[in-house]
Amino acid sequence: MIKIHTWLQSRSRLELGFVMTATLLYIFPLFAGDTSGLSKKVVGQCQAFKKKYKLRFLSLPFSAKDSFIKKLSGYVSYHLRCATLICRSDVVYYRISIHTLFLACFLMLYSRLTSKKCYVEHNADIVAELQLLKRHKTAAIASFVLRLFKYSHCIHISMTDEIKQLLLACGIESALNRVIQNGYFYPEFIRADVDESVIQLAKTSLSSYQKAAIFVGSDHPWVGLDRLLDTLSSEASLCLFVVGDYNKQAKADNVVYLGACNYSTLTKLYELCHFGCGPFAFDKKNMYESCTLKAREYLFHGLALFMNHKDMAESIQPLEPYVFNINTDDKALTQLMHFDYSASELKRLANTHLSWDALLADI
């Protein structure tokens, strides 16, 4: 796991500060040590930001395992520190979260009192997501806060066109709403961390099939592994590697459950695969577009994408041929199985168009 604070502390003051005097405050409203997936994104964004700004970074100072008293004191001190540093920074970049809605309200007010730029990043329809998780009271509060943003001067960063439309429906004007999809950051590959038993199992399983696909997921209800298994069941020449803490949802010979894998092991698994599979139940949280970090990981490792909804990579013309959406083309799987492409060329294209340097150039 990439520890965000460890990465930041490993950079000297000179590295984080320097060429330009403007200061950017990155507010990460989660505990940095609990977010192994998101940490790749945050480190990538920080690397891009620190090339233009003196970077300050704040995350919640407690974890889910800490005591109530520590959480309460940490929550209060975190908000006070954020408010102080917001006023002392030239640019603010805040990833909106249900954990820090009071901070969102403060940022709204501050944006009206200053000419400084305040960016708010939106990664999902948080209201629909909370409703799916049956957190209806929190969803109502989140909906109210989002509608308050129409009175602020914050600049909103939407990960997809669909999220932008949701924000426009909340009354946020178009001039303050941008679409910047997710990029990717390469973690360090550590050869000693590769689980050779997993690689050997994958190679042995693949020997009976023409091609392999990989699915890496979590237990969220919008992942949709069951739907993916149904979709791929007719392709007898394809072996599917399932990575994650899953019980065996299908006993088909061509579905191989590999359990949870670290990044270095995944890197070697990707070399055996023809394409990567995205989540197949995004509609459960009322979303029909995505730009998941895992899909970007597939692309950066030279794997085409197999989806049942639009991935934002489709909107980048050089990457569009590598995204196969079975929802818009029922022959997408057959076409993908016969798709002959260069993994190294796809890696190059992904590095060019989905690097954080390129995506965050205008901030």
What structural class do you assign from the helix and strand content?
A: alpha/beta
Distance between the termini: 28 Å
* Main pleated sheet: 6 strands, parallel
Strand order of the largest sheet: 2-1-3-4-5-6
**Number of helices, where a helix is a run of at least 4 consecutive DSSP H or I residues:** 15
Low-confidence stretches: 12-19
Order of helices and strands: HHEHEHEHEHHEHEHEHEEHEEHEEEHHH
Average pLDDT level: 89
Report Rg: 21 Å
**Count of DSSP strands:** 14
Helix coverage percent: 25-40%
Describe this structure as you would to a colleague.
With 363 residues, the protein is of the alpha/beta class. 40% of the residues lie in helices and 17% in strands. The chain has helices at 4-10, 13-16, 36-49, 68-88, 101-113, 126-132, 136-148, 161-169, 196-206, 225-232, 263-270, 293-300, 332-337, 343-353, 356-359; strands at 23-28, 54-59, 91-95, 117-122, 155-158, 177-179, 211-216, 238-243, 255-259, 275-277, 289-290, 304-307, 310-311, 323-325. The strands form 3 sheets. It has a 6-stranded parallel β-sheet, sandwiched between helices. It has a 6-stranded parallel β-sheet with strand order 9-8-7-10-12-14, with helices on both faces. Helix 4 packs parallel to helix 5 and helix 6 (126-132) runs antiparallel to helix 7. The chain starts with a helix and ends with a helix. Residues 12-19 have low confidence and may be disordered.
